[in-house]
Amino acid sequence: MFPEPLRGFLSITELDDASPFFGALFQRKFGHPVPDYPVHLGVFHDAGDGSFRPLSYLHFLPFGDIMLVGGLCTDGAVLRGMREEQRAAIDAAGGVMVHALRYAFARLADRCDAYFGYCGDARAYEVDLQAGFEPAGHDKLLVRWNTPLDDTRRRALVAKAHAIGPF
Questions:
Q1: Among the four 33, 89, 96, 98, which has the fewest Cβ within 10 Å?
Q2: Angle at 127 between CA 3 and CA 27, to 5 degrees
Q3: Residue by residue, what is the 3-state secondary structure of 1-25?
Q4: Residues 33-39: what's their mean pLDDT?
Q5: 3-state class of 1 per DSSP?
Q6: Which pLDDT value is given to residue 37?
Q7: How far apart (Å, rounded) are the C-alpha atoms in residues 18 and 29?
Q8: Structural class in CATH, domain 4-164
Q9: What is the DSSP letter of 82?
Q10: CA 4 to CA 132: how far, in whole Å?
Q11: How many CB atoms lie within 10 A of CB 66?
C-alpha cells in the first residue's frame, strides 16, 4: 500500500496479464512485448473521472528460491497529466517506484528468500537502493534479502543470480 498522501489517487495491484494495460508502455521503454509470465504488478492513477490510467509497471520472475525483478517503468505522460499537487505529493514521498517496490517486497514475501535486480541506469539504481535493495558484489547486480540467511546461503544465492547474467 502507498503512504497516506498517495492513497487517494494511486492504486497498485497484481495482474494476471499486464499486456492490455502496460504492453504499449513496456514496448516503448524496452523495445519488446511485456513478459507473458508472472508476476506482474501495476500502479494505476485515479484520474478523478471514474477512470484509472496505467502509470507504472514492475515484473517479478520466480526462479526457485529467488525472484528476479525487472521491467520497471513509468509512463511520463500520465505523470505530466496529473494535477500539480499530486505530482508534488509523489515527489515528496520519494517517487512511485520506491513505494511500488516496497509494496511488492511485502506482498511477495512468502514466495522467495531474496529479490535480485540488474540495473544499469543510475537514476533507477538510486531508487532501487531507497526501496531496500543493496549491492550484491557484482556490477549492476542488486539484492534485497527477504529472510535471514547464513553467509554461505547468501553467497550461493548471489552466485545463482549472477550466473543468469543481465535480466
A1: 33
A2: 100
A3: CCCHHHHCCEEEEEECCCHHHHHHH
A4: 95
A5: coil
A6: 93
A7: 15
A8: alpha beta
A9: S
A10: 20
A11: 21
Calpha distance 129→97 (Å, rounded): 11
Domain boundary assignment for the chain: 4-164
Q: In this structure, what C-alpha cell is assigned to residue 90?
A: 509523489
Do 129 and 140 form a contact (C-beta atoms < 8 A)?
no
What is the rounded CA–CA span in Å between residue 78 and residue 134?
29
Cβ-contact 79, 55 below 8 angstroms: yes
* Residues written for the chain: 167
* Entry pTM: 0.93
**Residue appearing with cell numbers 500539480:** 84
Confidence of residue 13 (pLDDT cuts 50, 70, 90): very high
* H or E stretch covering 131: helix 122-131
Contacts (Cβ under 8 Å, ≥6 apart) of 73: 22, 25, 26, 29, 30, 56, 57
**pLDDT range class, residue 45, cuts 50, 70, 90:** very high
How many other CB atoms are there within 10 angstroms of residue 132's CB atom? 16
pLDDT band at 16 (very low <50, low <70, confident <90, very high): very high
